[in-house]
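pinging the channel bc i need a second pair of eyes. not urgent but kinda urgent?? the chain im working w is below, pasted from the shared doc
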Amino acid sequence: MRKLTGLLVFAVALGGAILLTRYYKQKYAPPPPAPTAPAPAPPATGAGMTTAPPPSVYTDARGNAPVTFKTQLVTLDLAGKKAHVALTLERDPARPVPASVWVWAYFFNTDAPGRYCAGDPVELRQPFAAGARASVTADIPVRDCPAPRGPSSTYYARVNASAESAFAARLSEQRISYDITQASPVVVEGAGAGRR
């Protein structure tokens, strides 16, 4: 009988210790981190004005900036699964002339927040053959673009260029942004979207 009583006291003490531990763990646990605020929603499709983003500067792995680029016009052909990106490139005349510049763009639609479509970077060879400034057009194949919900659907593009490599031209997932103030408005063609 003594052993049974001792075992019962041990079980009750163990159960009490577990309950007290859970109670104090919940009561004195540090607060969970505050949730990050979601990115502000873009304006209603087809509404508002956007300004062209400022010129972008490609900076290589050593911190040098041999190429500056400005997006002039972006068209997206949904039926043909391709895009045309017109850029103005400018290089530092004090630096060696890059043999190639790789151009990459991703596209997003205000009807499908958090989704984008893109293709592989495109190599433009000898873009500075005529001087330190060049106007070029990159034809970029794209895939998996969200379908527009209507003729007023607005697409935007973010463009990147690199004189280093195709890998350096592609933005990492951490740098993908749906901020329309940093993007270029896109002229959409095909897939029933009509010309815009």
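so The helical segments are 2-28, 166-169. and Confidence is low (pLDDT under 50) at residues 40-52. — does that match what u expected or am i reading it wrong
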